[in-house]
Amino acid sequence: MTMKKKIPHFKNEDEEREFWTAHDSAEYIDWNKASVAVFPELKPSTKTISLRVPVQLLNSLKMLANEKDVPYQSLIKILLSEKVKEYKNSRL
User: Fold this and answer.
1) Is 83 exposed, middle or buried (0-12, 13-18, 19+ CB in 10 A)?
2) How does pLDDT run across 6-19, given as a tens digit for each residue?
3) Are 75 and 61 in contact (CB under 8 A)?
4) pLDDT, tens digit (0-9, with 9 covering 90-100), for 45-86
5) Cα separation, 77 vs 90, whole angstroms
6) Under 8 Å between Cβ of 12 and 33
7) Cα(51)–Cα(90) distance, rounded to whole angstroms?
8) How far apart are CA 44 and CA 49, in angstroms?
9) Residue 7: is it exposed, middle or buried by C-beta count within 10 angstroms (0-12/13-18/19+)?
10) DSSP string, 1-30
11) pLDDT tens for each residue of 23-44
12) Is 65 in a helix, a strand, or coil?
C-alpha cells in the first residue's frame, strides 16, 4: 500500500478551492475506502431571481399549477429543470 500525501491546512475555502483545482485528489485520498455520504436534512441552495414573462404565459402557468395542485413557482422550477435535463441529454 502506498502512503498518501497529507492534506494541507487551508486558511479559507478560496485557498482550498485553488489547491484542489491544481492537484489530483487521488494523491491525497484513497477513494477505494470512500463511502457514500447521505445528507437527508440538506436543503439545496436557492437564489432569488427576478424574471419577466408575458402576462398570458404567467396566467397559463398559474392555471396549469392549479390543475396540478402545486404552487406556480414550484411548477416553473419543475418545468425549467426538466427542460434543462432534456437539453443537456440532447447535446450528448
Assistant:
1) exposed
2) 999 999 999 999 99
3) yes
4) 889 999 999 999 999 999 999 999 999 999 999 999 999 999
5) 20
6) no
7) 26
8) 16
9) middle
10) -PPPPPPPP-SSHHHHHHHHHHS-GGGT--
11) 999 999 999 989 999 988 998 8
12) helix
8 Å CB contact between 7 and 28: yes
Residue type present at position 31: W
What does the block give as the cell for 83? 427542460
pLDDT of residue 6: 93
Residue 47 is classified by DSSP as -
Res 91: pLDDT? 79
For residues 23 and 15, is the Cβ–Cβ distance under 8 A? no
